[in-house]
Amino acid sequence: MLFDMSKLVQIFSSRRTWAWPYVLFMVLFVVLPLILVGVYAFTDINGNFTIRNFAKFFTHSEAIQAFLYSVMIAVFNTVICLLIGYPAAYIMAQEDFRTPKVMAMLFILPMWINFLLRTVATVELFNMCGLPLGEGALLFGLCYDYLPFMIYPIYNTLQKMDNSLVEAAQDLGANRWVCFWKIIVPLSMPGVYSGIVMVFMPTVSTFAIAELLTHNNIKLFGSLIQDYITTTDLLNYGAVLSLVLLIIIGLTSFFGDHDSASGEKGGLV
Amino acid sequence: MRRLLVIGYLSLVICLPIFAQSNLTYALKVGTTGEVQLLQEFPESYAGEKVNVKVQCTEYNVHGIDSLDFVFADQPLAITDKFDSIYSYTDAADVQWAVWQNKKEIKNRGQKVLRDNAYKTFVEYVHANTAVAKRSRGWIWWVFAGLLLLGTAAYGGYIVWSRRKEKELSSVEQETLRRKRMGNRRHYGSQLYLWLLLLVLYAPIALIAVFSFTKSKILGNWTGFSMDLYVNLFTGKADAGLNSAIWYTVVIALIAAVCSTLLGTLAAIGIYNMRARSRKAVSLLNSVPMINPDIITGISLFLLFVALGMSQGLATVCIAHVVFCTPYVVLSVLPRLSRMNPNTYEAALDLGATPAQALRMVMLPELWPGMLSGFILALTLSVDDFGVTFFTKGSGGLETLSTFIYSDARKGGLTPELRPLFTIILLVMLIALIVINIRNNKQKK
Prior knowledge:
By secondary structure, chain A is mostly helical. Chain A is about 80% helix and about 0% strand. Chain A has 2 domains: about 1-40, no CATH class; about 60-270, MetI-like (MetI-like fold), CATH 1.10.3720. In chain A, α9 (about 175-205) packs across α13 (about 260-270). The longest helix of chain A has about 35 residues, at about 60-95. The radius of gyration of chain A is 24 Å and the shape is globular. By secondary structure, chain B is of the alpha+beta class. Chain B has 15 helices and 8 strands. A 6-stranded antiparallel β-sheet of chain B has the order 4-3-8-1-2-5. A two-stranded antiparallel ribbon of chain B has the order 6-7. The longest helix of chain B is centred in the middle third of the chain and has 40 residues, at about 170-210. At the A-B interface, α2, α4, α5, α6 and α9 of A face α2, α5, α7, α8 and α9 of B.
């Protein structure tokens, strides 16, 4: 007994073991649940193995339509955010721009208001202006919610960029346009990638925003999953849909540099 | 000074069209057959004008609020076909199907619910709470145009006047002045872009802030200045659901932040001392919850709790919040570790300190700033979270602010006290930002 105690003390005085509780916690509450999504997708309501849920997905036109539509909306939203956000980040990163920090803060500040409340306010704004709710409102709302996620990483990379490269290009005779496309854009690509990942992933999986912005007339994939997973009898089918979403997320994070993206998210909040 | 004047003038002019419309709000009642009655009479002068009726459905509403325009003379108003986009169902399972089968015949396990049926039940649940008569004042648009023209003319005149002496300068000096101005103007263009973007970003928030000073239940309906909502919020007279939601949000955020800070700091120390390969593996594990969107984290945890047979409530929400907060704590503590001298801890042990003592007296003072920023980050993430909470809160009536707002918005209206609450949060954040900014500037100098 005494021997055991001293060994225990020895183990825990090695700081390497201090991460064990965390690893255990993560395996139990992150890895295991993700595996469970797969398990539920391949079982029926009584827990027997089945692939009928998958067959249902491939014949369920509503779900496939919602899926394609969500991906399309997410792509559109990402492109719009990029087109609006890149110039903003570029302007803020200019050397003669006097108050970049204040401006960056002003762009981040709205995120402190609960996004659902902002969405409801957006709906009211549309009502007040007499604009119809629908696809346009949806895109506006999504872009409104995720624009800071695009501006911030691009601004960060642009700001860290070595300005002497631009000057060198100008000395060598490049005009502003060439300089922008050949020097600044390639150098800012890491920021653009993490911006794309940070906008695309939440948009493709969004569920509450779409419901509020379109009065539930447009069904995104996230809302569909929500409906099924919260209905006890249809839980297994919901797991299939989640698995499909998980695959999309996996693919996106495989293409994007997820380490920097998650780091940026931390910096943003 | 000149810039301030221009901005002030422009914002004044831009605000003008808001007054171009005035609204009169009236209470309404819905009869059993679906007709809508006015509880007060419209003044004569409003005859023939458009009346916008907002109708709200409380039970299982798919559409929440709907509105319909009537002309004043058409009293009594009646709910017509236009409202059939609102469904109501008595069976929760039907709602699930109705939601995605939207506006079609609904088939659910052999049971057929037709549109007419739905309409009948809808009438029982609906209540119309306001009618808004809109009257527009056309002349304000003329004033708007006039002021805009006047402003432009005044500004042009000012520029001509301020440059009257330039003609006497040499051509070289004129050229340098022109160049300088061109540079400035380019700057103005890009500044304008940013400010326009900010204007759009802040418009909904401004709406919340402005309408926190009126008593009206519906956002966007001004019924005169009043501080009642603020008073209600602070004296606890607000909706009981809102009070408990605020309470739960604070409790959950504190528990989650404390737990994740402790767990994350220990983990960071462990990870830092690991061999390269296992460190890489744990870092990968650490980044998984950060990459996962809310809905996936929420659903996977929901499935885990279902599989384990755990009843969902405060405990499960706290666990879920610790799951997505801790990685950020780890990330904010790790840089601190790599900055400190790794030998001090060993030195403390050699000098006879127990590991606990060494941790408390040597490590903690060094790691403190990282832990604090991790703690604040965790608080923010926890308060802000919706997706994960939604799936792990269970059906026991536990609501945080986010889920409360969601269920509120689904019902068709927001609890009015939410407006002052978030106005205050915004103000506090704004002041904090300004203070931090001033402090940074002072440090620079």
